[in-house]
C-alpha cells in the first residue's frame, strides 16, 4: 500500500540538459536535506541546519497550490493522519529552490517524503550526472505524458529509503489534472511498518 503524501511528483526527457545548471550543488543540497527522512524530527533539524528557511507560500504560488492539493487528497480518507514537516526555501548556486517535508500514517503504516522543487528549471538534469551522483543506474524510468519523464531509484538515497526520484516537467507541458508542477523535482521517500 503506497501512502506517499502526494504532492504529485511528475517528470521530463533528459535529451537536452541545461549546460550551466549547477546539478552537483543542487543534488548535494538534496542529499543533505533529505537523507534523514525516516525520522521527521531529524529531517526538520537537517533541513534547518543546512540553511533552509521556513517558507509560507501564498495561495497563488505553485508550492502553495501543490500543498493545497495534497491536503485535499488527504482529507478524503479519514483513516489517513497527515504528518506536516513544513515548507522551506533556499537559494543554491543561484537556483531558487523550495522543499517540502510531509507524510501520512494509516494504522501501523507510515510514509514520509522530502521533495525539492526548482519550479523555474527549463531543462532536465543530465541522467549521466544523476547516475554518477547516485553511484548506480536508476531502477526505472518513464514518460508519464508528453513533456515529462521520471527516473526512480529503489532503494532510495540510502539503505532503508524506499525510493528516490529525479523528475522534470517542461514549462509548457499539458499536465494531467492541471497540477501546478513545472521544472525539476527531487524526491526521497521512506515507508515504515510498525513492528517490522
Topology:
Layout: H1 23-34, H2 40-49, E1 53-54, H3 62-75, E2 81-92, E3 95-106, E4 109-118, H4 127-134, E5 140-145, E6 148-153, E7 163-169, E8 183-193
Antiparallel strand pairs: 1-2, 2-3, 3-4, 4-8, 5-6, 6-7, 7-8
Described by its quaternary structure, the protein is single chain
- Structurally, the number of domains stands at 1
Give the tally of β-strands.
Answer: 8
- Shape type: globular
**Roughly how many Å is the radius of gyration?**
16 Å
Main pleated-sheet profile: 8 strands, antiparallel
Tally of DSSP helical segments: 4
Give the termini separation: 15 Å
* Low-pLDDT segments: 1-16
What strand order characterises the main sheet? Answer: 1-2-3-4-8-7-6-5
Helix amount, in percent? 10-25%
Q: How big a fraction of the residues is strand?
A: 25-35%
Average pLDDT confidence is 82
Structural class based on helices, strands and sheet pairing: alpha+beta
User: What's the helix-strand series?
Assistant: HHEHEEEHEEEE
Descriptive account of the structure:
With 196 residues, the protein is α+β, with helices and mostly antiparallel strands. It has one domain. Helix content is 22%, strand content 34%. It contains 4 helices and 8 strands; from the N terminus they run ααβαβββαββββ. It has helices at 23-34, 40-49, 62-75, 127-134, and strands spanning 53-54, 81-92, 95-106, 109-118, 140-145, 148-153, 163-169, 183-193. The protein has an 8-stranded antiparallel beta sheet with strand order 1-2-3-4-8-7-6-5, sandwiched between helices. It is globular and about 45 Å long. Mean pLDDT is 82; it is low at 1-16.
Amino acid at each position: 500500500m503506497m501512502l506517499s503524501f502526494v504532492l504529485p511528483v511528475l517528470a521530463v526527457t533528459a535529451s537536452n540538459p541545461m549546460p550551466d545548471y549547477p546539478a552537483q550543488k543542487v543534488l548535494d543540497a538534496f542529499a543533505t536535506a533529505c537523507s534523514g527522512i525516516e525520522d521527521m524530527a531529524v529531517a526538520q533539524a537537517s533541513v534547518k541546519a543546512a540553511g533552509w528557511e521556513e517558507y509560507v507560500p501564498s495561495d497563488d504560488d505553485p508550492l502553495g497550490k501543490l500543498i493545497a492539493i495534497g491536503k485535499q487528497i488527504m482529507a478524503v480518507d479519514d483513516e489517513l493522519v497527515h504528518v506536516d514537516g513544513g515548507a522551506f526555501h533556499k537559494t543554491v548556486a543561484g537556483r531558487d529552490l523550495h522543499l517540502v517535508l510531509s507524510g501520512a500514517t494509516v494504522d501501523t503504516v507510515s510514509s514520509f517524503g522530502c521533495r525539492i522543487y526548482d519550479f523555474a528549471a527549463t531543462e532536465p538534469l543530465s541522467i549521466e550526472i544523476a547516475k554518477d551522483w547516485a553511484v548506480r543506474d536508476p531502477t526505472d524510468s518513464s514518460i508519464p505524458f508528453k513533456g515529462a519523464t521520471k527516473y526512480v531509484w529503489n532503494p532510495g538515497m540510502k539503505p532503508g529509503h524506499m525510493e528516490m526520484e529525479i523528475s522534470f516537467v517542461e514549462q509548457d507541458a499539458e499536465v494531467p489534472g492541471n497540477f501546478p508542477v513545472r521544472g525539476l523535482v527531487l524526491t526521497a521517500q521512506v515507508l515504515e511498518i510498525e513492528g517490522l
